[in-house]
C-alpha cells in the first residue's frame, strides 16, 4: 500500500514551522543545482520494514497489541502515536538482540557506521519524523519531518511529509539538504529516479508526467522524458503518476496514469519506454486503448500488458507486490508476477484469503518484502466491526497479528513474533 496520504494544510504549516524554529538536530540547507560529483556512484538500497546487512544480519521492529488501533476500516490499523516498539537485530544464526525500545516504526535503512535510521509516527494522518539510533551507544537523534526512502550507506534519501520534495541526510554530520522537487520512485544502479512536480495541474490530471534522475549528492540531475496530457478527456481523476517501472538493459519502461474515486480505482494509462540517457522516448502500449498498471518486458524487449477493460491486478503506485486469489505475487526484474506466498503459508494468522474482504473476517497485509531468498510479511486478522465502517469500507476489529518469514529455497515459514 502506498505510504503517503493527502495531508492537511495544518500539517504542512507545522512542518515548516518546525524547520524554521530548528526543532530537530540536523541542519537544513539547499543543494546546489546540478551539483557535479567526482566520486564513484555507490549502490543505493531502498528503505523497508526489514533491513539486512550483507552478512545476513536482519533488523526489524517487534510490535505488540498496544502499537496499533484495535479496529479500522478495511483492516488498515494505524500506529498509535507515543507507543514504543522494540528495534531488534537477528544474526544469521538466529540470535536476537534488542537495539532499543523507543517511539518508532515503519521503514529502516542502515549506514556504513553504527547508525540506523528509522521513522517515528507523530500523528494519525501519515505524519512521521526521521530519527536515528546508534546501535553501540543507544543515542538517538532527530532530523525533521518526512519519510525515509533509501540509503547508500553515507547519505539517507528522504521525502518531505507531502511527498513533494526529496532531501538527503549526511549520516556523519546530520546535515539535511534538499536535492530536488518531486516524488521518489525507485533507486537503480546507484541513481535515484523520481517524478518532478508538474506545474500545470490541469495537464497532470490528463496524463502529463515526467521521469527524472539524480544521485545521492544532488548531481547528475536530468529529466529523461515527459508524456503528453492525452490519457483522459475530463478531469474527474487525480493527477497522473508513474505507477510501475522495469529497468531492462539500457532502457527504462514505466506505466503511468491516474486513480479516481473514493476507491482509488486505476483509470487506465499508457506505457513509456526511454533510454537511460533520456533519448529514444516512445509509447509502447496504450495507443489503441488504455492499459492496466502491471506489465512485463520479455527478453526481446516486447511489452506484455493488460487492457483496463479486462480483469487486472491492482497495485498502488510503485508497489512491488499484489494479491491474487489469496496468494502474494512479487514482480521480478522483468516485471513478471511470481507467486511467492500462498494462503497455506499464513494460515497460522487467519483462515481467510488475504486481500479479500467479506462480511465476517479479513486478513490484511501491513507489509510484504522480499530480501534475498526470504519474504517477510506482517499480517493482521480481524473480524467484522460495524462501528469502524466508513461508508462502503467494511470495518474490522483486529484479533491477532504476526510477522512471518518464508524461506524461498526450502518453503519453510517461521513466526518471527506474534501478538
Automatic annotation (TrEMBL):
Domain of life: Bacteria
Residues annotated as signal peptide: 1-21
Keywords attached to this entry: Signal
Full protein name: DUF5050 domain-containing protein
Organism: Blautia caecimuris
Amino acid at each position: 500500500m502506498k505510504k503517503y496520504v493527502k495531508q492537511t494544510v495544518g500539517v504542512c504549516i507545522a512542518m515548516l514551522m518546525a524547520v524554521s524554529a530548528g526543532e530537530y538536530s540536523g541542519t537544513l540547507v539547499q543543494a546546489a543545482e546540478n551539483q557535479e560529483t567526482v566520486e564513484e556512484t555507490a549502490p543505493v538500497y531502498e528503505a523497508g520494514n526489514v533491513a539486512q546487512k550483507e552478512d545476513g544480519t536482519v533488523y526489524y521492529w517487534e510490535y505488540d497489541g498496544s502499537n496499533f488501533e484495535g479496529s479500522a476500516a478495511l483492516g488498515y490499523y494505524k500506529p498509535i502515536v507515543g507507543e514504543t516498539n522494540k528495534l531488534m537485530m537477528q544474526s544469521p544464526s538466529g540470535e536476537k538482540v534488542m537495539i532499543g525500545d523507543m517511539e518508532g516504526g515503519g521503514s529502516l535503512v542502515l549506514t556504513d557506521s553504527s547508525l540506523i535510521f528509522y521513522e517515528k509516527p507523530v500523528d494519525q494522518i501519515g505524519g512521521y519524523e526521521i530519527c536515528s539510533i546508534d546501535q553501540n551507544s543507544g543515542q538517538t537523534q532527530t532530523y525533521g519531518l518526512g519519510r525515509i526512502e533509501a540509503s547508500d550507506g553515507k547519505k539517507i534519501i528522504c521525502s518531505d511529509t507531502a511527498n513533494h520534495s526529496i532531501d538527503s541526510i549526511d549520516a556523519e554530520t546530520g546535515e539535511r539538504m534538499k536535492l530536488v522537487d518531486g516524488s521518489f520512485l525507485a533507486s537503480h544502479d546507484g541513481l535515484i529516479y523520481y517524478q518532478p512536480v508538474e506545474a500545470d495541474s490541469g495537464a497532470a490530471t490528463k496524463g502529463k508526467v515526467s521521469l527524472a534522475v539524480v544521485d545521492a549528492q544532488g548531481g547528475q540531475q536530468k529529466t529523461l522524458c515527459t508524456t503528453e496530457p492525452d490519457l483522459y478527456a475530463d478531469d474527474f481523476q487525480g493527477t497522473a503518476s508513474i505507477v510501475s517501472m522495469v529497468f531492462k538493459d539500457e532502457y527504462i519502461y514505466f506505466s503511468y496514469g491516474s486513480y479516481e474515486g473514493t476507491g482509488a480505482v486505476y483509470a487506465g494509462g499508457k506505457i513509456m519506454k526511454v533510454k537511460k540517457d533520456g533519448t529514444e522516448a516512445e509509447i509502447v502500449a496504450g495507443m489503441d486503448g488504455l492499459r492496466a498498471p502491471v506489465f512485463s518486458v520479455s527478453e526481446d524487449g516486447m511489452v506484455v500488458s493488460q487492457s483496463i477493460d479486462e480483469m487486472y491486478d491492482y497495485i498502488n503506485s510503485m508497489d512491488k507486490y499484489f494479491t491474487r486469489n489469496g496468494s502474494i505475487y512479487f514482480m521480478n526484474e522483468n516485471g513478471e508476477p511470481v507467486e511467492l506466498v500462498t494462503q497455506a503459508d499464513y494460515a497460522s494468522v487467519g483462515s481467510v484469503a488475504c486481500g479479500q474482504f467479506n462480511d465476517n473476517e479479513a486478513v490484511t497485509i501491513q507489509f510484504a518484502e522480499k530480501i534475498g531468498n526470504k519474504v517477510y510479511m506482517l499480517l493482521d486478522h480481524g473480524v467484522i466491526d460495524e462501528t469502524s465502517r466508513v461508508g462502503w469500507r467494511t470495518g474490522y476489529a483486529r484479533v491477532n497479528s504476526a510477522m512471518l518469514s518464508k524461506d524461498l529455497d526450502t518453503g519453510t515459514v517461521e513466526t518471527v513474533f506474534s501478538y
